Amino acid sequence: MNPSLSPTPTETGPRPGTGPDPTDADRYWLRAAVALSRRCPPSAAAFSVGAILVDAGGAVVADGYSRRDDPADHAEEAALRSLAPDDPRSASATLYSSLEPCAERTSRTSPCSDLILATAVPRVVIAWREPALFVDAEGVERLRRAGRTVVEDAALAEEAREVNAHLLA
């Protein structure tokens, strides 16, 4: 699979990393999350974000992007919605998101960081920290305080920013 194309559940690729540093496999999946963000319907009031949940064996468990099913959808929310809360794969999965999961929301009551914490997902890899454009961005800190491993791969931040250039001008 080419990570510049959007993967679908059941596709497989490299096994995600497991530690606090980004691996080549993490960059592969993060590029796929950025590719998903390009599917987002445009918005002047929300970031375009892609998210992919990958199990320990490198299989896509779930994916989502902002505004996929509803104008208020966030990428992580859309991906996690298709995962059963007790799905055993989540305990060793990595969630890849092109943008830091939100810690505050204006459109819904549960921010993405809380939705992640309601699962067993132990590791989150992001490309870009959310700028304080719409809300205060503290998703990384919230996840880390709860004991989750959060990996930031700033090498891919520019790719995630490009998708959102219209908001940053």
Automatic annotation (TrEMBL):
EC number(s) given by UniProt: 1.1.1.193, 3.5.4.26
Record flagged with keyword Cell cycle: no
Biased composition (Low complexity): 7-22
Disordered, as annotated region: 1-25
Record keywords, A-Z: Hydrolase, Oxidoreductase
Residues annotated as domain CMP/dCMP-type deaminase: 24-141
Entry protein name: Diaminohydroxyphosphoribosylaminopyrimidine deaminase/5-amino-6-(5-phosphoribosylamino)uracil reductase
Organism: Streptomonospora salina
